[in-house]
Amino acid sequence: MDIKAGFFYLFSAVLLFAAFRVITARNPVHAALYLVLAFFQAAAVWILLKAEFLAISLVLVYVGAVMVLFLFVVMMLDVDVDALRAGFWKHFPLAAIVGVIIALEMAAVLMGGFAPGEPTAGPAATQASQTGAVVAQVSNTKELGKLLYTQYLYPLEIAAVLLLVAIVAAIALTLRERKDSRHMDPGEQVRVRARDRLQIVKMPPVMAAVPEAPAAAVVEGKA
Q: b/e per residue, 71-103, with b = 16+ CB within 10 A?
């Protein structure tokens, strides 16, 4: 077994462990962190398979954006873990059956795809072998970049414009003033100072107690 196969088994083992801990961790924050670890291990496996663009996209999109948002929401909300796990064992048999069926289907598909067979050489490979030419290694990321910025340039620009419009619309909807919600001006929040929010009042540490009037004198005064 070479070093590449060793790294593949190492990353795969850590990936399986992290995925198992995602569904068994009691704390939602810990489950989200284990999911981040699983994404990193999957990206490492894709790098070993020479799919650099998929690995970089997984780290940037899911780990850098989606999981950070998940962690922010989970940590800001007061999630009742006991209420979420109230019906866990009730639905566990059905979930286990569905999981076993999905695992068997994936195993059948993958084992059929990885079945050993005789490699078929295409016309380009046959011509290269006949002429003795050496085929240079091509980077997947470089070739994908060429396709995006040449053949698919206009669809890429249209998608970028749509994303920009969505960002502007989200900001406009967030900052608009509504009568049924409390609106705060970000400019006023930035300009606020400590002395505008807090006022320190000096008071003596000891104050003399005021003597109370006798009850009999109070009754006589009323009479």
A: beeeeeeeeeeeeeeeeeeeeeeeeeeeeeeee
